[in-house]
From TrEMBL:
GO molecular function: transferase activity
SUPFAM superfamilies reported in the protein's UniProt record: Nucleotide-diphospho-sugar transferases
Protein name: N-acetylglucosaminyl-diphospho-decaprenol L-rhamnosyltransferase
InterPro entries: Glyco_trans_2-like (IPR001173), Nucleotide-diphossugar_trans (IPR029044)
Glycosyltransferase 2-like domain sequence ranges: 5-127
Name of one Pfam family that matches: Glycos_transf_2
Protein source organism: Nocardia fluminea
TM spans (from-to): 258-277
Keyword Metal-binding part of the UniProt annotation: no
The entry's keywords: Membrane, Transferase, Transmembrane, Transmembrane helix
Length: 287
């Protein structure tokens, strides 16, 4: 049994050492770390080399899904595992626990529970939302970020529990594992998703092929969150909304296809409003 842990970096010099250390602390015997860098402008590559790694260095940022696919194709381990550079595996037996979960042939993906650096649980077992719920969540997450009924319904019982695995619709790509044959059968992530929702799309395709997605009980990570996108907020907003449009179009069938243009218009309006608000805040802060 061999495991490859892929860490995709972009200006991740600050957090990468802790992520790598958490992998090296695992009890699993045959673990390889593959770092792939999407054209960082800081010293991420130097840090990776100082850690004894040989990073794959892309000349430009090709996006999250495409870079993960590139790294996975360069490895041969039995299990493909993703770990964000700003996340740390919280238990030395986390990888072993994830492999145990995947011993069930009907499970396609296993993801970890997530906690914040303050130790607070963060929802990771997400639901595939209906059109109505998606719209409510999109509106209420702006008007009342964090605590609102729409977002609570969207995430559902998504925190997980330490004593048992939990079947969910999809899990974040922050930390997940798949068997390599299935990863290759599904052709990894759809590279049309430059960033965001490539994980939801993969889980959707797996469900269409009869596989389930599971949120691990014993495996968890600490995630600092948003480190690659915090300096390019408007660009991140664009990619988030573009991916939401792709996913919505991908998952609507039958008569619901007539709602796709309406959803695109709604997402365009929401994106414009958020970009305007974000730009105004930056201008105000710079005064």
């Amino acid at each position: 049994m061999s495991i490859d842990v892929i860490i995709l970096t972009y200006n991740s010099a600050e957090h990468l050492p802790a992520a790598v250390a958490s992998v090296r602390a695992q009890t699993a015997a045959d673990v390889t770390i593959t770092v792939i860098d999407n054209a960082s402008t800081d010293n991420t590559l130097d840090v990776a080399r100082e850690l004894g790694l040989t990073p794959i260095a892309n000349s430009h940022n090709i996006g999250f899904g495409a870079a993960i696919n590139q790294a996975a194709a360069a490895t041969q381990a039995d299990y493909v595992t993703l770990l964000n550079p700003d996340a740390e595996l919280g238990d030395p037996k986390a990888l072993d626990a994830m492999v145990d979960t995947l011993s069930d042939p009907q499970i396609g993906i296993v993801g970890t529970r997530i906690q914040t650096p303050a130790g607070e649980p963060y929802p990771n077992g997400r639901r595939f939302p209906s059109t109505t719920l998606a719209a409510r969540h999109a509106i209420m997450s702006v008007l009342r970020p964090g605590t609102n009924s729409a977002s609570a319904e969207y995430f559902g019982p998504a925190i997980g529990r330490p004593d048992a695995d939990q079947v969910v619709d999809w899990v974040s790509g922050c930390c997940l594992m798949m068997k390599r044959p299935l990863w290759e059968q599904m052709r990894g992530f759809d590279p049309r998703y430059w960033m965001y929702l490539e994980d939801a799309d993969l889980a959707w395709r797996l469900r269409e092929n009869g596989y389930t997605t599971v949120l691990s009980g014993p495996a968890w990570v600490t995630h600092h969150g948003g480190q690659s996108s915090k300096f390019r907020r408007n660009r991140s907003l664009w990619h988030h909304h573009r991916s939401a449009a792709l996913f919505y179009a991908r998952t609507r069938t039958g008569w619901r296809r007539i709602l796709v243009p309406i959803a695109f218009a709604f997402l365009g309006i929401r994106l414009g409003a958020l970009v305007a608000l974000n730009t105004a805040r930056r201008l105000t802060a710079s005064d």
